[in-house]
């Protein structure tokens, strides 16, 4: 059985840059490339299999017709989406709905709980993460009055930090951060503040204040994650989060490390280095899925991989 390698899909964003080319060597379409949808079965950026008997098939086709590859996991949509984001400018401040709200208000979309591994951050880089309103009515008041400085919480970030961002959390990536995002497969974002920016024609971007007020959790109550690292022969496995939507790990391999694929399926992204999975060469920027029944395998080389499963 072979890993299923995926073609990445690139998305132009007004806040994007060139880090996906400069850092990862991807052939990006332009100098405002904000997102690499690395493992995706979402219609807004579909991934295709690059190798083996399923070459040329979309991930959605496999989910729909070869569910055995995914351990017969349930669900209408492939549940996860892995992205790399290059925030070359501040993103608008946003919030995502949960499954129930999205299903009702966004045509059956999934909600969006996400998490971020900071691949790189420039000196002094920040994120917006959470808010200072104590109640839902405070949220409404502060948003309607535009009390942004008082409302938003800013935190400093550095390479290697990790954030779990449940639906209902106010958040924004800020300038100078490069992150790997693992999220539910959803493209629903409610924008609550865009720093009063306007486009070249002088128009502001659309805001979604009422939906934001509907879904923002108050008070903000996210204690953050406590990563736990475990040494194994040939490497270190760091567990960041185990949530109802996904679990996320980092494998730091130096030598030969043995694993067993005992999940319905496993998503892997190579953040740095070169090496092999069994006898198959892998390198920085590769993204692949280990299907159900992949069994025992080895990772060899000097590699840093982000790994996730449902
Ligand atoms: Zn988000």
Largest sheet: 8 strands, antiparallel
Q: Span from first to last CA?
A: 21 Å
Radius of gyration: 19 Å
Alpha plus pi helix count = 6
Approximately how much helix is present in the residues? 10-25%
Strand content: 35-45%
Structural class estimated from helices and strands: mainly beta
* Outline: globular
In short:
The chain is globular. It is built from 6 helices and 19 strands. The protein has 310 residues and is mostly beta strands.
Summarize this structure as a short list of keywords or feature phrases.
310 residues, mainly beta, eight-stranded antiparallel β-sheet, six-stranded antiparallel β-sheet, 6 helices, 19 strands, 42% strand, binds zinc ion
């Amino acid at each position: 059985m072979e890993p299923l390698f995926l073609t990445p899909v690139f998305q132009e964003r007004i806040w994007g840059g060139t880090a996906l080319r400069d850092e990862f060597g991807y052939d990006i379409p332009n100098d405002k490339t904000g997102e690499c949808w690395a493992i995706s079965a979402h219609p807004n950026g579909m991934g295709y299999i690059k190798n083996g008997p399923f070459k040329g098939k979309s991930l959605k086709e496999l989910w729909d017709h070869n569910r055995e590859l995914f351990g017969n996991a349930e669900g209408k949509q492939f549940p996860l989406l892995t992205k790399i984001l290059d925030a070359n400018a501040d993103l608008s401040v946003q919030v995502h709905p949960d499954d129930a709200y999205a299903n009702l208000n966004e045509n059956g979309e999934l909600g969006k709980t996400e998490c971020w591994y900071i691949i790189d951050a420039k000196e002094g880089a920040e994120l917006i993460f959470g808010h200072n309103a104590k109640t839902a009515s405070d949220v409404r008041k502060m948003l309607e009055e535009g009390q942004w400085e008082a409302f938003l919480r800013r935190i400093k970030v550095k390479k290697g930090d990790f954030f779990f961002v449940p639906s209902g959390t106010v958040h924004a990536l800020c300038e100078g951060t490069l992150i790997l995002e693992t999220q539910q497969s959803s493209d629903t974002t409610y924008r609550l503040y865009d720093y009063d920016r306007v486009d070249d024609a002088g128009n502001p971007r659309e805001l979604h204040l009422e939906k934001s007020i509907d879904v923002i959790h108050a008070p903000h109550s996210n204690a953050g994650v406590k990563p736990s690292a475990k040494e194994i022969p040939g490497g270190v496995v760091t567990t960041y989060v185990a949530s109802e939507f996904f679990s996320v790990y980092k494998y730091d391999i130096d030598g030969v490390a043995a694993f067993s694929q005992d999940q319905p399926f496993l998503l892997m992204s190579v953040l740095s280095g070169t090496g092999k999975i069994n006898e198959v060469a892998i390198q920085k920027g590769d993204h692949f899925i280990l299907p159900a029944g992949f069994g025992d395998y080895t990772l060899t080389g000097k590699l840093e991989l982000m790994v996730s499963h449902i």
